[in-house]
Known about the structure:
Layout: H1 11-17, H2 25-38, E1 43-49, E2 56-61, H3 68-74, H4 97-103, E3 108-115, E4 118-125, H5 126-132, E5 138-140, H6 142-146, E6 158-164, H7 175-196, H8 198-201, E7 212-215, E8 218-219, E9 234-235, E10 239-243, E11 246-254, H9 263-272, E12 280-285, E13 288-294, E14 308-314, H10 335-365, E15 372-377, E16 380-385, H11 390-398, H12 403-415, H13 419-428, H14 440-455, H15 462-472, H16 479-489
Amino acid sequence: MARDHHLPPSAACLSASMRDLGYSLETAVADLIDNSISANATAIDIICDLGSTTPTVAIIDNGWGMNGGEIIEAMRHGAANPKQERSPKDLGRFGLGLKTASFSQCRSLTLISAKDGGLSGAAWSLDRIDELDDWILSILDDDEAAASLHTERLEGHGTIIIWSDLDRLFEDETGRRRDEIVNEKLDIVEKHLSLVFHRYLAGEIKGRKKIAISINGHAIVPFDPFCRKNPATQILPEEVVYVGSIAVQMQPYILPHHSRLTAPEYDFYQSRSDFISNQGAYIYRNGRLMAWGDWFRLIPKGEATKLARVQIDFPNSLDESWTIDIKKSRARPPHPVRERLRQIINQITGRSTTVHRGRGQRLFEEVTAPLWERFADQGGIRYAVNTSHPLVQKLASRMDDRGQHLTLLLESISAALPVEMVYSDYSTHPREVGRSAMEHDAVTHRLHALKNAVFDGLAADPKAFREIIRSTRLFEGHMDIAEKFIREEIQ
Length: 491
C-alpha cells in the first residue's frame, strides 16, 4: 500500500524559478496597482529613487490598509484560491501577484501598511530564503515599520510597497547609462499604465471613484485606445453574449482616418499606438485591460482592419473560462465569445476598409482632372499619370513629334510607382507621407512657373487654375498663399 511522504519544494529553488514567469517592469507595476485598486485606493504614487545609496522603487496608495495579520496573509505565496468566489471589484486571482511581480524586479520586498491608527510591516529577502532554504518572513517591529521609507505619507490608512536590491532594473549598468535605462523603462511604464487603467483614470468604472496614478510626481494621463472623443470615431451597436448565465459585453469601434485627427490627437496616438499592430479585441476584466491587439487567429491582421477595435468586458467570475494567467497579460475568449467575435469582425471589416477607400476615392474625385488615375481592369488595379491633365497636355503640345518621348516617360513613371514602399510608409507614418516644406518665396515661384506652363502668357481662368493647383497637390498646406496668388496674379 502506498504511503504518504511530505515533500515541500525547495524554497531557494522555487523562489528563484518564480522570478522568471515573464514579468516586465510595466506588467509588474500594473500587478501591484491591481492590489491598490482592490483596496479602494484613489491615489497611487510610484516613486523611483535613484539618488540614495540604496536605490528603491516604492508604490504608495491611500487604500484601506492592512493590520499585522492581514499583512502576513498578503505576503503568503498563494494567499487566495483562484476558484473561490471573490468580490466583483477584486482585480486579483491567485494571491501570487504581489510576490512574483516584485521578485521579478528586486531581491527584497517590504510591505508597510496603516489601518485603524496602527502601522505594521513585513519583509521578504531572497538572500535570506537562499541562505536558509526556507520561507522565513521578517515581521517588522513598530519602530522598524515607522522608520521605513515614505511612512509620513500614510494618513491613518494606506499601503507602501518597497522594492530594494534592484538587481534587474539597472541591467548591471552604472552612472548616466543606468539613469538612461531606468528613464526609458519608466516611460514604458507610464504608457502601459495609461492604457491598462485608462477607464479607472478617466472615472468610467461604475461604483468606483476616479483614481489618480503618478510616477515621480508626474500624473499619468489616460490613453483611450478607441479615440472616443473624436466625432469621426464610429461607435457600432453593442453586442451581448452569454457564457452560461453571465453576460459578456462586446462594443465594436472604427477609429477615424488619420486625416480626421487633430495635430495633438495624432501626436498622442502615434507616440503610443501603431494602428496595424494594435487592431483587434481589447479584453477588460472588471474594467482593467488584460490583453489587446489580437484577433485570436480568427483573421490575420492587415490594412483592411487596421482601424477596427472591439472592446470586450467580462467579470472576474469568468476568470477560469478566459484562462487568465498569473501576470494577467493573457486571456483567451471562451467559445461563445469567439464565435460572436467572428461575426462582428465580418461586419466591421467592411467599415474599416471604407474609411480608407472612401478617403482615397475623395482624393481622386475632389478635382475634375486629377493628375493620377486609378484603373481596375483585367482583374487587377493600377495607377497611371493622367495624360489628359492640362499640365501634361500643354507640355505635349510644345514637344511636336517628340511627344512620344513624353508618353514613354509618363508610362515608365506609372509602372515604376513604388507601391510597396508607399504602403509601408503610409501604414506606419501616414502624416509624414507627402509632406514637403517650402518657404513662402518658393511657393510663389512654383505658382508662377505653373501659371506660365499652363497658360503660356495667355489670359488665365481663376477657377481652372485653382483646379490645376489642387490636382498637382504641390501646394497642400499652402493653399492660403495660392489663393492670394490667384486674387493678385490671375486676371
